[in-house]
Amino acid sequence: MPQVVSTLRVSEVFASLQGESTRIGLPTTFVRLTGCPLRCLWCDTEYAFRGGEILTIQTVLDAVAARGLRHVCVTGGEPLAQAACPELLTALCDAGHSVSLETSGAFDIGGVDPRVSRIMDLKAPGSGETARNCYENIARLTPRDEIKIVIADEADYQWACGQIEERHLPERCAVLLSPVIDRIDPARLAEWIVRDRLSVRFQLQLHKVLWRDARGH
């Protein structure tokens, strides 16, 4: 029987600075996979919902190697919507890269290689996709993983506070709160975090500060 070669639909591969997570500021190669079944109201990567190019995992590995960076982030879209994503993540780890995965939290993360740092969203009400949260994933998180909650308004913030307390999130991994640009003043979110003494990390999207909405950054 001929060997089946795994492929992925890839939107883009590019080198930039990591703009989010505790890896913020690190030179990183991004592999953006095409497609996402979610439609968050504040999504800033709608161009990745469709299109892209079908590539073998080896072709993706070669493209990553050509960028010459240790850190690699697999993002989307929603990477785990593609069946071959876990295979790609393992291949990147085997190639010696420090690998992170940005995922919506709507898919089971249990099959992801344990060497990968999983940056998992919890979707607040302002996203319009709270019903897609797979809360079972929380028990699968380890200290090398991170939870990101994007905040569009004060209602989202109060929801996040409830999740943090009820589910003891900071005891599992780092928790990141990020404002939706143009929807909420980042300073307000920062002030709420300090006021309430939350055990979280405030973050701005560094790539938007530097390059606004330009693709490939």
Give a description of the structure.
By secondary structure, the protein is α/β, with parallel strands linked by helices. The protein has a single domain (7-211), classed as Aldolase class I (TIM Barrel), CATH 3.20.20. The chain is built from five helices and nine strands, in the order βββαβαβββαβαβα. A nine-stranded mixed beta sheet has the order 3-1-2-4-5-6-7-8-9. Helix 4 links the parallel strand 8 and strand 9 (201-202). It is globular, with a radius of gyration of 17 Å. The model has no long low-confidence stretch (mean pLDDT 95).
Instruction: Please tell me what the overall shape is.
Output: globular
Mean pLDDT: 95
Report the radius of gyration as a whole number of Å: 17 Å
Unreliable spans are none
Beta content comes to 15-25%
Could you give the count of β-strands? 9
Q: What is the level 1 CATH name?
A: Alpha Beta
Tell me the count of domains: 1
Main sheet characteristics: 9 strands, mixed
How are the strands ordered across the major sheet?
3-1-2-4-5-6-7-8-9
Per CATH, the superfamily is Aldolase class I
Termini gap = 42 Å
SSE string, helix = H, strand = E?
Answer: EEEHEHEEEHEHEH
CATH fold name = TIM Barrel
Q: How helix-rich are the residues, as a percent range?
A: 10-25%
The second-level CATH architecture is Alpha-Beta Barrel
Content-based structural category: alpha/beta
Q: How many H/I helical runs?
A: 5
